[in-house]
Amino acid sequence: MGMRRACELVGVARPTWFRHQQPPKPRKHVARISPRALSQGERQTALDTLHQERFCDVSVREVYATLLDEGRYLASVSTMYRILHSVEEVRERRRVAVHPPTVKPELVATAPRQVWSWDISVLQQHNRRFLMS
């Protein structure tokens, strides 16, 4: 029986049969650089501009808008973010208040009726620590 007849009986197209008989060919990944990509000098200019003191507390979108108002176009907003990401500087650029860590109040009692609390679990934990020491 020929291949054409066998494929007809099974219900598979002949090209499909032959394609599945050959092992897949490994494909090499070729890193392509877009012809529209910024040169290294242009990237460094954009990075230096983002590092200027007047832009230290400003978002990337505001930097972009300010530069456009001045008649300068360095790169798109997404490209500026990509440049910052490449040097691991994508973070909150504004000054954000850092709150000190909260401190748990410590209950210290050396005799009965010195510590009062509405939450009995706190007193039970304290009592366990007091009895263990």
What does this structure look like?
- With 133 residues, this protein is an all-alpha fold.
- It is 45% helix and 0% strand.
- It has a domain at 40-86.
Largest sheet: none
* Percentage of residues in DSSP E strands: under 5%
Number of helices: 6
Order of helices and strands: HHHHHH
- Terminal CA distance reads 91 Å
Find the count of extended strands (DSSP E, 2+ residues).
0
Give the helix/strand class. mainly alpha
Unreliable runs: none
Overall pLDDT metric: 84
Give the key terms.
single chain, mainly alpha, 133 residues
What is the element layout, followed by pairings?
Layout: H1 3-10, H2 14-21, H3 40-50, H4 60-69, H5 77-86, H6 120-132
At a glance:
The protein is mainly alpha-helical. The protein has six helices and no strands.
